[in-house]
Amino acid sequence: DRGVIALNKPPGLVSQGSTPGTGVGTVHNHHSRENDAVSSKSAFSTVLDGLRRRYDLSTGPYPVHRLDKGTTGVLMLACTKVLARELSQQFRTHAIGKTYLALVLGGSREFSAKKGLISHSLSSDNGRVQLGAEEGLGSKPALTMWEVLAFSDKAPLSLVRLYPRTGLKHQLRVHMAHTLQVPILGDTLYGNATSAQQILASSRVPQSRLFLHSSSISFWRYRRTGPRKRFRLTIVAPLPADFIKVCREMGLQPPDVAIQGGIFVDGEYVGEEEIPDVGGRWLGEPVSV
Q1: Which CATH code fits 1-23+36-93?
Q2: Catalytic residues
Q3: DSSP letter for each residue of the chain
Q4: For each successive 10 residues of the chain (289 residues), what is the average pLDDT?
Q5: Which CATH architecture has domain 94-284?
Q6: pTM higher than 0.85 for the full model?
C-alpha cells in the first residue's frame, strides 16, 4: 500500500543490505571474508533499489525485520522512515503477529501432544544459538507456540505451524531441534543431514533447502476517517512450489490459504480489492493448485 510493501522472499536472499541508493550497508564490515554474504547483501540492496524506482519512492523502502537466508515468506518493508519507526515499535511491543509453517523431521511417535508452548531461553556462542542454562547469564527468554497440522504416513515427517512470541535469532530452528527433538527439514546447522537426504532423495530439492516459511504477518494500520480508524491487516505469503511438492509427495496437505496467500482486514479476506485509505492491494500471482 502507500506505506508498506510486503515481499514473498525466496530462499537464499539475505534480508539485509545497503540503504537504497547509497551503497552503504546496514552491517558495516569492510574486511568481510564471506564473499557470498557480501554478494547476497548486494542482491538485496538491488531489490530495494528496484522497488524504490518501481513505486517512485523518494527514499526507502526500509526493512523493519529480517528473515534467515534460507527462510522463505512474507518480508515487510516500510516506504517511509516514519512508518518504519511505527512498525519497529509494534515489533518491540509484540503487537505484530507472525506465523510460520515448517516441515520437521519427526512423525507421530516423536510428538507427545499436537500442540504446545516452548519457553526455553536461548544463548549465542560464536554465532551458534543454543538452549540457555539460565536467564540473565547470557541467555534471553524465548517463547514459541506450536501445533501439528499433519503427520506423513510415508516418512517420519510432519507439517507444523509455529507462532513465535519472541523474535530471537534462530529461535524456531533451535526450539524445534533441541527442545522438541524434531529439527526442521534442510537445517544443516541444527538438523539431521542423513534423515533429510533420505527424504529429499526423490524430490530433486537441494538438501540444504530449509523448509521454514514465514506464512503470515499481521499488524495495525489506521484509517483517516470512520468510527473504527484502527484495523488489523494480515498478509499471507503463498508457499513456495518446492515446499508444496514435498508436502504432496509425503502425503501432507497444507491449508488452502497457505498455498494461495492473500490479504485480510480484521480477519476478513479482501481478495484483490483495494483497501480504502491506505490504498493497498494484492499483487501476487495466482498459485496453481
Answers
A1: 3.30.2350.10
A2: 68
A3: --SEEEEEEPTT--S--BPTTT--BSS--TT-S-HHHHHHHHHHHHHHHHHHHHTT-SS--EE-S---TT-EEEEEEESSHHHHHHHHHHHHTT-SEEEEEEEEE--GGG-SSSEEEE---EEEETTEEEE-SSBTTTEE---EEEEEEEE-SSSSEEEEEEEESS--TTHHHHIIIIISS-PBTT-TTTS-HHHHHHHHTTTT--TT---EEEEEEEEEEE-SSSS--EEEEEEEPPPPHHHHHHHHHTT----HHHHH-EEEETTEE-TTPPBTTTTB---PPPPP-
A4: 90 69 34 48 87 90 94 96 95 96 96 96 86 73 97 95 96 97 94 78 79 97 80 96 95 96 92 76 66
A5: 2-Layer Sandwich (3.30)
A6: yes
